[in-house]
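#structure-requests
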Amino acid sequence: MNSLEFPSAEQVLDRLGDDFITAFIDAVDGARADYRELKAWHPDWAPGYTSRFIANFAHERIWDRLTRQVRGRPGVEIRDEEPIREIRTGTMFVTRVKRHHPGERISTYPTAGALAYWAGRAITLEGLEQHSLAAGYYWDRETREIGDAVLSLREALDRPVWGITLERSASAPTGIAWTPIEPGLPELDLSQFATEDEEEDFA
């Protein structure tokens, strides 16, 4: 792979490893169950939850579940320095937890730091490229539910290279099944834009 190419979904999954991908799927599934438990605990509160509250809750639960499973594994480095949360896997990938919308949009404040991160990759030496991944879930605006686990590689905030959904599968050789997401029309969500806020939006 030369410095002008992006890795394919297969190459990324292979580099991240089955253990990491399984931990990510379990984290999303677990966050979905946590949210259902929250709603069951006080169903009268749930209608008043904003999309931002749900997104922040989902982020916290996915981040906590995922980092507890991968912390201390060889090649995994966790950065949890608010407002930045990311996981480095080897020297090639940096992953942030992000909510995905139709058209492969992700939710973030478009600050200088966020735009630089989602510019896709920092090229150093041949074979040592660093790529930015978004690992999260599909957000269904109508049902307001945490959807499938999603992994995407981007060349810019609003320009995904590819996206896939992931799930556990007993019939798959590795126990993990993935499906390419049909490309949509990417849109940049500026609804949460804050001109003076330089903090990265977790959700």
